Sequence to fold (112 residues):
Amino acid sequence: MVVDTELSDAEVDAVFHALADQTRRDILRRTLSGEASVSELALSYAMSFAAVQKHVAVLEGAGLVTKENRGRTRIVRADPETIARAQRLLDSYADLWRDRIGRLDALLSEDV
Fold:
């Protein structure tokens, strides 16, 4: 069984790099439930506005969020489709390992 992915290797690297950080995961979670400005997001963290902007930029680079300019305000919203694509990749890996374990179980249960 081959793992088929809709994401390129570079996209997979970017998504999992972005998700490796607790603050970015929290920003993603918050923007999944509703859009927020970068300023609103920054109020929740003990870091500078610029640091939050950098976290948002990493998420945006991975395709996990989009940013929209509304005047001087930058609105951030999650992109559920990229998350779904990453989930399908993980599901493919899970299927691969279930198949391998099933074959190993069958091999071990054969009478020799």
The chain has five helices and three strands. The two ends are 26 Å apart (CA to CA). The beta strands are 36-37, 65-70, 73-78.
